[in-house]
Amino acid sequence: MAKKVAETDRSFASGIRVDSKLRAARERVIEVAGPITVYTASNKTAIPGALVTEDDEDANRVKGYSHLISQLLGINEFPDGVVHYGEGYANAFFNGNYLVFGEGDGEVFGNFTLSLDIMAHEFGHALVSLGPGLLYSGESGAMNEHLADVIGISVQQWTSQDQTDWRIGEEILIDGASAVRDMLHPGQAYDSPVLGKDPQPGHMEQYAKVRHDNGGVHINSGIPNRAFALLCEKTGEPSWGRPLAMWRRAMQDLGPRSRFRDLAAATWRHSGGLNPAVREAWGEVGISI
Length: 289
Ligand SMILES: [Zn+2]
Fold this sequence. Notes:
The chain is of the alpha/beta class. Helices cover 42% and strands 9% of the residues.
């Protein structure tokens, strides 16, 4: 898979081949099965569990989404998926081998297979682990989270052809108002008595020096997230076009301990005609190139 990523990354077109079946499939359960093999943990926590053999709504969604993700990214090899993980399990994760989805607690979080951007986010972690292998703590960990969000939002925006929605995971929040993250407006994804307030900063001056969350990996990712969204807003470029291609190329220049400024410099090197906007976008979150 790593080799395929490198190959597709050579082109700025970034594997964008919109097929008409996909356009029609937007916002519905997608009936085209993608390249993923899906197992069910049958509400237990042993992974992978059993191969899904009968009609399973969650598995069908994951298969359809894998088709969309592979179409946009030009990647046909997928880690296997696991649905119905645990009981009331309110999360999704990539464990190094499997993309794993819980059904949610039914109170705050709904089923995690409902969100295309979350699935694409978890797939993004697989790409990061095969590519730069960013350590999952502190700033490199926050960048790992950021790169997964870039993959997530690009697939979502490409599928919906909507460049204005920068929210991640809004489909799984039962209140219908919140999202898990907001890439353009970090810190504004949610604010409720149950969830508290979104702690994400959108500028290096607010970088959270914390111990929990592996040193704030899901918190400080707001900073590069905002730079990516700002770049798209400033240039009018769709996330899934040149910005995504730029970020995928930049990923190849990173290593396990890379920091935000290394990514900023790498995106600048791979930015083609967008250099001034790239510098500006990173500058607005406090990272100078
Ligand atoms: Zn993540």
